[in-house]
Structures are given as C-alpha cells and as structure tokens.
C-alpha cells in the first residue's frame, strides 16, 4: 500500500509508483498524469548528473589544454566541429539500435566511449592538439550515444505534467555539477606541477563515467518497438509544418551553442591565464544558474513558457553588448551571471514544448526515436553553421572588434529560436491537463 507523502516535502523528494512507459498525455493509460517524478525519473536524473559532472570536471579544460599547446582558435573550433558532426551521425545510425533492440545499452555505450575519450587524451598528452579532429569524433560519438538514449528514455518516463519539473531539476543538478567540478579541476591543476593536474582530472572523469555505467544498470530495461525509418527527418520536415518551425528554433539555439560552448571559457583563460580563475568563474556562474533552475522548478508553469522564453532570449543576447565596452574577467563574469539567470527561462520552455510536440498523439509518440534524431539534427545544423562562420571570420581577422561583432551576430540565435517557437506555443497546449 502506497504511503502518503507529506505535503511539506518539495516535489523532487515526493516518491510515487512508476507508471512505466508513459509516452504522452494522449496515450491511453490507466493512471492519471502526475506532476511528480517517480523513482525511475530520479534515477535518470542521477545518471544525467554523473555524466554532466564527469564532463564538466575535464571538458572545460580540454580546450584550455589544447590552447596551451597551440594558442590558436582553429584547432579547438575544428575539434568542436568534429564532435558535433560525429554526434549527429551517431544519433542517426544508433537510432536503429535504440528503436529495435536495447536503448539502455546505447546509454551505457555513451558513458563507456566518454571514458575512452579521456583515456585517449591521457595517452596522447601534449600531442593531443595534433589529433584534435579524431578526438573530437570520439567525443561526438560518445555524446551521440548517451544523449540519444537519454532523450528517448526521458520522453518515456515523463509526461506533459511533469516535464517542466524534470527539466528544471536536470538543469539544477547540471548547474551543481558545473559549479563544483570545474572549481575542483582548477584547484588541482594549479596545485600540481606541470601537466599532472590535467592527467589527474582526466583520470577522475574516466572513473566517473565507469560509475555512471554501473548506476545505469538500476534503470529498467525499456521495451523497444516498431521499425526505424531512416529518412524520417526529411519526410517530417517536408510534411509537418510544426516540425519545420521546431527545427528552425533548434537550429537557432545550436547557432549560439556551437561557438559559445568553447569560446567563453577560452576568453576567460586568455584574459586571466589562470585555470583556478576559470574554475572560480564556473563556480560563480553555475551557482547562480543553480538558484535560477531551483526557482523555476518551484514556480514555473507551462502557461508562462512563451514570455519566459522571450525574457531569457532578450537577456542572453542583450548582455553581449557589454563586450563592446571591454573584454575582461569582470565583463565576462557579468555576462556569465546574466546568462545563468536567463538560460533556464529560455531552455526549460523550449525543451518541454519540443517533447510535448513529440507526444501530441499516439502515432507521433511511437516515432519518438526518429523525432529525437530530428531534434539533434536540427541542433547540430545550427552548431555546425555557427562554428563554420566562426572559422571563416577568424581566418580573416581576430581583432577584438571583429570578435565582438561575430559573437553578437551568432548570439542572436536564441531570439531566432523564440520567433520560431511562438508558432508552436499556440498549438502545443501543455498547460491543459487531461485525465486519460
């Protein structure tokens, strides 16, 4: 008999029986939709937190590691480009295995290949910059495996009523990992001589990914069904107007993410020449992000998605003008704090609405794997375009003014995403709860 949970507990701590495979509010079910998270959802959050913490521990400093060997933007940009390209291809190719066989094996493969990536970095040492593209391909493959399976499982164990809550807690835990991991890394790198600190944090990341694989065995094996449609993404964009808008929004998000994912951390290091200061930067900005995600998890409602996302988008783009005044640690910190406050307002409504669109009806829910692949394709198109623009412009000039205008233009991606998403907010009424 299920015990009643005290009402004073926050939603994240309230435990209920797992509803199993619950794909959308439109799927026939004997249970009513719930705004709480079951045990499987919480376990998935833990796996996600370990994966992100392991990546944050070393991921921030891989780019710095490459920069210290060869102080040029191009190798790091090509490393990032290769990672996103491999990630998109992995999503597409692994989609068949996820839909037809065992999606949990793909989740574990993502963490195992991530461990392999850091092993290769350890073995390559300072020569890693010469293998930037191959290493990027390995990291992209790892990311593709993990996020494909994670997103499919996430869709299956959440519904329109608790999707915002899950995303808010996922962001909060990611902020916690992003807050502590880089700071610890910066401390170790500065305290240990030579590159010993880098070797240690890469080794710790490797070990954490192994731990993540172990934890994943407590997630239930989830049923696979249907036939994988290899050309689904093209057919969907051709026949479904709503997904054309969704793809445009995701590409706008990716346009910014592809470049900002590596350039901001590099600018902090270039401005300070200190790994410890870079760790402190992520400690501060992630702490702000943690509070922001917590507040959204507590008070944000689906009916606020449209204007919440607009607010986040405007702040994320507007704060870029601070770099025209000065690019220094102070302005970078102002930028980081502003984005940490605004990004949850942007990402939670967008992510939840996209997955609500996947769950529009039973037919679309059955094609959830293909829709997740389409989502990643759209993001990666934006990321790859953004990085190519960055490579082209920086090959002509790396003057401060050029970089400022480049960052400002690429940073408009969230506003592009919001314009596209307004076409979806009116057609995906997530705020309406049903009793299917």
TrEMBL record:
Chief location of this protein within or outside the cell: membrane
Keywords linked to the UniProt accession: Membrane, Transmembrane, Transmembrane helix
Membrane association type: Multi-pass membrane protein
Record-level Gene Ontology MF annotations: transmembrane transporter activity
Keyword match Transcription regulation: no
Regions crossing the membrane: 43-67, 73-94, 106-125, 131-154, 166-185, 197-219, 281-300, 307-327, 333-360, 381-399, 405-425
Source organism, top-level taxon: Bacteria
Subcellular location: Cell membrane
InterPro entries: MFS, MFS_trans_sf, Sugar_transport-like
Gene3D superfamilies xrefs: MFS general substrate transporter like domains (1.20.1250.20)
Pfam family, one: MFS_1
One term under GO cellular component: plasma membrane
Protein name from the UniProt record: MFS transporter
Organism: Brevibacillus formosus
Lineage: Bacteria, Bacillati, Bacillota, Bacilli, Bacillales
């Amino acid at each position: 008999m299920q015990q009643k949970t005290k009402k004073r507990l926050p939603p994240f701590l309230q435990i209920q029986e797992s509803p199993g495979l619950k794909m959308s509010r439109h799927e026939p079910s004997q249970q009513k939709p719930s705004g709480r998270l079951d045990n499987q959802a919480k376990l998935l959050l833990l796996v996600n937190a370990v994966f992100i913490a392991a990546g944050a521990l070393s991921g921030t400093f891989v780019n710095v590691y490459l920069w210290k060997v060869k102080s040029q933007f191009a190798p790091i940009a090509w490393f990032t480009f290769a990672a996103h390209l491999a990630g998109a291809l992995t999503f597409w190719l692994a989609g068949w295995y996820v839909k037809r066989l065992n999606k949990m094996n793909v989740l574990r493969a993502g963490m195992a290949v991530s461990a392999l990536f850091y092993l290769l970095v350890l073995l390559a040492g300072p020569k890693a910059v010469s293998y930037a593209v191959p290493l990027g391909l390995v990291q992209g493959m790892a990311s593709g495996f993990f996020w494909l399976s994670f997103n499919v499982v996430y869709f299956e164990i959440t519904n329109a009523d608790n999707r915002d809550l899950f995303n808010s807690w996922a962001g909060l835990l990611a902020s916690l990992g992003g807050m502590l991991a880089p700071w610890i890394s910066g401390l170790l790198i500065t305290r240990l001589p030579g590159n010993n600190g880098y070797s240690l944090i890469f080794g710790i990341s490797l070990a954490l990914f192994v731990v993540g694989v172990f934890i994943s065995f407590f997630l239930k094996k989830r049923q696979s069904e249907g036939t994988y449609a290899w050309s689904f993404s093209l057919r969907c964009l051709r026949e479904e107007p709503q997904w054309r808008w969704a793809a445009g929004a995701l590409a706008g998000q990716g346009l910014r993410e592809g470049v900002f994912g590596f350039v901001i951390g590099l600018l902090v290091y270039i401005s300070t020449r200190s790994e410890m200061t870079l760790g402190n930067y992520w400690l501060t900005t992630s702490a702000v992000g943690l509070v922001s995600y917590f507040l959204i998890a507590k008070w944000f409602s689906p009916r606020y998605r449209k204007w919440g996302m607009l607010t986040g988008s405007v702040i994320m783009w507007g704060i870029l003008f601070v770099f025209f005044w000065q690019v220094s640690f102070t302005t970078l910190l102002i930028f980081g704090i502003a984005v940490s406050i605004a990004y949850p307002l942007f990402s939670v409504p967008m992510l939840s609405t996209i997955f609500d669109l996947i769950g529009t009806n039973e037919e679309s829910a059955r094609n959830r794997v293909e829709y997740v692949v389409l989502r990643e394709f759209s993001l990666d198109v934006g990321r790859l375009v953004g990085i190519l623009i960055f490579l082209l412009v920086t090959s002509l000039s790396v003057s401060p003014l050029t970089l400022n205008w480049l960052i400002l233009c690429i940073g408009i991606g969230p506003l592009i995403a919001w314009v596209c998403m307004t076409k979806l907010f009116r057609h995906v009424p997530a705020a309406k709860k049903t009793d299917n």
